[in-house]
Amino acid sequence: MSQVKAKETEDHGSKNLPQEIVKLISQAQEAKKQAYCPYSNFRVGAALLTQDNRLFTGCNVENACYNLGVCAERNAMAKAVSEGYKEFKAIAIASDQTDRFISPCGGCRQFMREFGLNWDVYMSKPNGSCLKMTVEELLPLSFGPDDL
Ligand SMILES: [Zn+2]
């Protein structure tokens, strides 16, 4: 079911993208250049757009103690929250994978969900094409702040 939905948004999402989303994907690609990933060599960049159009970027930051590494998406969200922004419109994610759209890990999906279900995640390829899904589509039946 979600596969079918994703395919539909892929076809639509790669064309006629709003200018602010094209820019967001470009900023995610730029942020990817700062990735610190000497262990995986898997560069990821993220660009987060707040409801009031502030932009925060992040990259993955690995560590010799592997499990301390931080994903690009969580890095960008933590930067925004630390600056007082908690309402998000969209996040774009970029990697070097040319054959598939970069997809957020389960931890990042849960982290996104903390700040709402109905905002957009643009999973991109280096050529700028993307797959758009909402946080709720990426994490159905989720556990969040309302459950506590
Ligand atoms: Zn992640």
Question: What can you see in these coordinates?
Answer:
This protein has about 150 residues and is α+β, with helices and mostly antiparallel strands. It has a single domain, classed as Cytidine Deaminase, domain 2 (3-Layer(aba) Sandwich). It has 5 helices and 5 strands; from the N terminus they run ααββαβαββα. The protein has helices spanning about 1-15, 20-30, 70-80, 105-115, 135-140, and strands spanning about 45-50, 55-60, 90-95, 120-125, 130-135. The termini are far apart. The chain binds zinc ion.
Q: Secondary-structure map with pairings?
A:
Elements: H1 2-13, H2 19-32, E1 44-50, E2 55-59, H3 72-82, E3 88-95, H4 106-113, E4 120-124, E5 130-134, H5 135-138
Parallel strand pairs: 3-4
Antiparallel strand pairs: 1-2, 1-3, 4-5
